[in-house]
Design goal:
By secondary structure, this protein is of the alpha/beta class. Helices cover 35% and strands 15% of the residues. The protein has a single domain, classed as TIM Barrel. Helix 6 links the parallel strand 5 and strand 6.
């Protein structure tokens, strides 16, 4: 099966966990007619033609590859979710990036709604998929007054407590935890109000979350960054500038892996330079 074009919503586009995971956009689902028609079983003629145009072998990393479908995976009906995950499995993928939407799960402090996330995790595991769980989206009660919906919580310890709660609930089921999403873009980390100090604020979020997850799980993998390919500007930081300031703020020793979102689907020289 071919991979779809990069999604337009940058927050949930493909990401790479360096030396660990390769994630891509949502996978197109072949229709029953395509699956039963001429050509290879389960592969549409359009996909087959696309694969013939591809030169050279596909290189799969030792850790395997997987898919990400952003927040939309949480709104799928059970049957639609099953179709998506079946397609992911048929593609030979072994990973699924699953959003953990804190603002939906803990809309009121101390009261948790796990039904949707439980279903996604349960079905992903039935399809033999390892999960990279991305914890983001602070609920309104945790953010500063008049802050942007994308803003981090006012008190980083609230995020750490929630992260520990999630890690404890899915102990034995999920061990890879990604801390936030693309904090080097101000659209996903509080807007103009927090941009000037975003690397430092992110480090303040990362450090206690790392410790909290490691307290409740044995040998988890806490993934920092999930950084977008960007240049340093009034609304973004380049990957290198953001990581450098993370280290200056004390991030060393507070993550086990670093995630990058290079958006390789665009294939432009500019994108490669940004990464």
């Amino acid at each position: 099966m071919s991979l779809s074009q990069a999604p337009t919503r940058r927050a949930w586009c493909c990401g790479i966990v360096v030396a660990a995971l390769l994630l891509s956009g949502p996978l197109p689902i072949p229709s029953p007619a395509a699956a039963d028609g001429p050509g290879r079983p389960g592969v549409s003629s359009e996909t087959e033609q696309s694969s013939r145009r591809t030169s050279g072998p596909v290189v799969v990393p030792d850790a395997g590859f997987g898919f990400a479908d952003g927040m939309s995976i949480l709104s799928l009906t059970p049957s639609a979710l099953e179709r998506q995950l079946t397609a992911v499995e048929r593609a030979g993928a072994t990973w699924l990036r699953v959003p953990v939407n804190w603002s939906q799960i803990e809309q009121r402090r101390g009261r948790f709604q796990w039904t949707v996330l439980d279903r996604v995790v349960r079905k992903a595991r039935r399809h033999g998929l390892s999960i990279l769980a991305n914890i983001s989206q602070a609920p309104r009660w945790s953010r500063a007054l008049l802050s942007e919906p994308s803003a981090p919580p006012q008190d980083p310890s609230t995020y750490a407590r929630f992260s520990a709660t999630v890690a404890k609930r899915y102990r034995g089921k999920i061990k890879h935890w990604e801390i936030w999403n693309e904090p080097n873009l101000n659209g996903f980390f509080g807007g103009v109000r927090t941009h000037a100090s975003a690397p430092e604020l992110y480090t303040r979020l990362l450090e206690p979350a790392y410790r909290a997850i490691h307290r409740v799980q044995k040998r988890p993998v806490v993934v920092a960054g999930a950084l977008a390919a960007a240049t340093s500007s009034s609304s973004s930081y380049s990957m290198s500038a953001f990581v450098r300031r993370m280290y200056d703020a004390g991030a060393r020793g507070s993550f086990d892996a670093l995630a990058l979102h290079p958006y390789i689907g665009s294939g432009t020289d500019d994108t490669r330079r940004r990464v």
